[in-house]
Amino acid sequence: MNSKRYLDESAVGVGAMIMFISSGILACLILAAMVQMAEKTAQTPEMIMSLATSKISDKIIVHDIYVWDEWDNFGIIWELSPGSQPKEGVDLHWILQCTDPTGKYWAFWGDFTATNMDVDPHKYSVKQKINPGLKAEFFDNQGMGTAELPDLTNRIPDITSVEGQIMFAKSGGAWPIQGGNLPWVDEFSLRASGYLDITVDGTYTFNVDADDGYALWVDGQLIVEGVNSASSGDIDLIAGKVPIQIEYHENQGVAGLILRWESAAIPREIIPAARLTHDDNMIDPNTMDFWETVTTFEAGILYEISIDQMNGNAGRNNLGDAVPAPTCGPKQLHENDLKGQLTFIVGGGSSTWTEFKVPGILAGTRVA
Fold first, then answer.
1. Of 234-248, 295-309, 311-325, where does mean pLDDT reach its minimum?
2. pLDDT tens digits for 32-43?
3. Structural domain includes residue 366
4. How far apart are CA 182 and CA 140, in angstroms?
5. What is the DSSP code string of 150-195?
6. How far is residue 94's CA from residue 178's CA, in Å, rounded to a whole number?
7. Which is it for strands 340-346 and 296-297: parallel, antiparallel or unpaired?
8. What is the mean pLDDT of residues 185-204?
9. Disulfide-capable partner of 112 in 46, 92, 192, 337 (CB 3.0 to 4.6 Å)?
10. What is the spatial distance between Cα 250 and Cα 71, in angstroms, rounded to a whole number?
């Protein structure tokens, strides 16, 4: 019995030693993996992309990309997707890419820490609602094949413009928008948003006549929705600027969308451009001292950052070459009719990507 017990204790000791050695090997493997991840972050944008895992819901939702300073900076208004865990700046990454006028490819990247930004990341402060018209975002839905309104949540628009009125007569041709015509006649969506100026308290009736799907929200309430029809809904409103948003989807054939309103004091009419505005994203130097800078980002809060090639000191390609300013910036892309690409990545989460052109270099001009 004693002999057997002695042998049992020896076996336990050997097992513990094996476990100890195995734990050490595992720790080394984990450390090596962490070092490898850090090395990836320091090397190429493709390797940074490998940090994203689509199985995890953490994601950056981009609301606006706009010209920050008419030269080389882009402003980004964004938030973490609902349900995301709080993130530190080192957990979030951006990549700015383009081909310059000579055909040379450039990439700049970094994280969301203050050292990778011209200004500290900060909570978004609503700008003055003074820009006339609604912000109009158009989405390419080629191949979708449905008349139902698609879910535009988390999607980055393919084209952004400003529309004075929602007045697109039914036709089989391309819609005229600010700056030209849409490139599609079928399978596209629109999300127009901004504010409606209410001058008198009262009950207002809104009417949407559309082909195909649509939905209208006023002051946060869903007023009407439908497919290939005209419908109306009422809401009581108090004087002031109230949020308004309309979403629309064209499948095949005729496309049309008209938004009208009426009240006791207003006969039925297409909502005038003078009553519609949207936020101004231009940077006001007088408000910078009041920015609430942050280092930890949480879901459900809008943030604002500014990035450019110089912010890419954390990482860039063509290390042996001097970077001609303003590479990949609004000025270069606009004046040479070039496209840029922006990618936003949550480490261990998902990525958001968009390709864009810069329609103008005036600060505040939306590019995506």
1. 311-325
2. 433 343 444 444
3. no
4. 10
5. P--TTPPPSEEEEESS-EEEEESSPPEETTEE-S-SSSEEEEEEEE
6. 30
7. unpaired
8. 94
9. 92
10. 37
Confidence label for 243 from pLDDT (cuts 50, 70 and 90): confident
Q: Answer for the pair 278, 131: CB distance below 8 angstroms, yes or no.
A: yes
- DSSP track, 36-97: HHHHHHTT-HHHHHTT--TTS---EEEEEEEESSSSS-EEEEEEEPTTPPPEEGGGEEEEEE
Total domain count, the chain: 3
**36 in the same domain as 99:** no
For residue 168, is it within any domain?
yes
Does 294 lie in the same domain as 272? no
Is the preceding peptide bond at 326 cis, omega within 30 degrees of 0?
yes
In angstroms, the CA 50 to CA 351 distance is 10
Structural tokens at position 270: 């297409």
Beta carbons within 10 angstroms of residue 197's beta carbon: 15
Cα–Cα dist 300/157, whole Å = 21
Distance (Å, rounded) from C-alpha 309 to C-alpha 298?
26
The pTM of the full predicted model, rounded to 2 decimals, is 0.52
Which structural domain, as residue segments, surrounds residue 240? Answer: 131-278
**DSSP at 40:** H
Question: Do 113 and 227 fall into the same domain?
Answer: no
N-term to C-term CA, the chain: 80
The Cα–Cα gap between 234 and 216 comes to 11
How many degrees, rounded to 5, is the angle at CA 334 between CA 329 and CA 337?
120
The rounded distance, in Å, linking the Cα atoms of 58 and 125 is 23
The amino acid present at 325, given as its one-letter code, is A
| Dist CA 37 CA 90 (whole Å) | 13
For 330, the token pair is 């609004």
CB atoms within 10 A of CB 164: 15
Token duo for residue 343: 């990618």
Q: What is the DSSP secondary structure assignment for residue 31, as one 8-state letter? A: H
Rounded Cα gap, residues 296 and 340, in angstroms: 28
pLDDT digits (tens, 9 = 90+) for 72-116: 889 999 999 988 999 999 999 999 999 999 999 999 999 999 887
| Distance from C-alpha of 320 to C-alpha of 308, rounded to nearest angstrom | 19
- Mean pLDDT, residues 128-145 taken together: 84
CA distance 287 to 177: 33
Q: How many residues does the chain have?
A: 368
